[in-house]
Every structure is written in structure tokens, then in C-alpha cells.
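Q: Convert this sequence to C-alpha cells.
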Amino acid sequence: MSEQTVNSSAPATPITLIVVDDHPVVRDGLRGMFDSAPGFEVLGEAANGVEGVELAARLDPDVVLMDLRMPGGGGVDAIAELTRLGARAKVLVLTTYDTDSDTLPAIEAGATGYLLKDAPREELFTAVRAAADGRTVLSPAVASRLVSRVRGPAAAGKEPLSAREREVLELVAKGTSNREIAAELFISEATVKTHLTHLYAKLGVKDRAAAVAVGYDRGILG
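A:
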């Protein structure tokens, strides 16, 4: 099939993104990397979170590559503001930090994914494509940290998910919104929220990304 070739596998409409990082060399490197690859278009760059939010609101990219620790406006606050504004863009954190104090707040603020800057080139391309599709992307180190954080005596003995809760979790893993899940399963959004509350409790987590991470770790999601 033609989709097996490099050029024809690129989407007809490129994935648009902006780069938010306080280091000009990093921004230049990422722009050059994506400009040289088929299927991507870098719309702009910002040096801090405040500028990043303004740029995302103005350019409406598919994906925002967001650093976390930046003078003049950090990434977590920017992610939270984009979430509050209902921005269409998916935020993929790209940083050198993978501590709990960085990872968890970013994901709780609404980041779709979290990668470290030492990620291989192809892994970054794959992550951006996945983020654009609304799928959760976590580097192995971050996924392990999340699982370790949420796993414990209280979570280890939880009852298994019901068939419906598994369906909801599978759709969450695909980046499906509550409204879309409700339409897919022919239930109300309120019922979706109830199922999410129950499966969070059973998995011992507090948010969608952590639920997906634990779901994969326990084999619930394959």
C-alpha cells in the first residue's frame, strides 16, 4: 500500500504546532527538525508560557510543544490557562525534568503527553502525531513514575473494572471526550462522569492520564 512509503504516509493536511521554550537554540533545533520532516508545520515560537498561550490563541495549532520551567511564565500555568480557555490545541510537554513536582502538576493541568528532551527524533514525531489525535503520550520514565505514584496498598486490592468501565477507559485512552463517549455508548454525560469516578477509585488515580497509565500497566488496555 502507498501509506507504507515515507512521503505518502504524511497526512494531506500537515499537523501544525508551536514551540514554547526559553532557549533559542532549542527552539531553532525543534523548528529545523519538524520543518525537515513531512507532515508537520511549525507556525511559531514563544519564549515563555504567557507568550505561548497568546500564540496558541492566535494561531490555533494542533499541538503545543511546551517546556515547563521558563522565566516570565512557566509551562504548568500556561497549560492550565489553555485548558481554562478551552483551546483546541493538545499540549505535549517536552522538558528535561521528570520529577513528581513537575510531572503530576503538568498532567493534572491538562497536558496530553509528557516527553523528555532526550527522546529520539522518531519518538518525538510519533508523540506529536499521537497528541494531535488526542491520545495520551508518556515517556517510559514518566509512565513508570506515574504508576509508582498511584500504586500502593490502597490501590492494590481494588475490585476489577466492570465491562462498561473498561469501555469508558478504552475510549479515554483514545483521547475521546466525555461528550463523545456518551454518544458512542448511548449514555448521558453524567453517566460517563459516574463511570469515570468509579474507575478512578478502583485504579487508585485522580485523572485521565494516570488512569490510562495504570490501565496499560495492569494489562486492562492490552
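The first strand starts at residue 15 and ends at 20.
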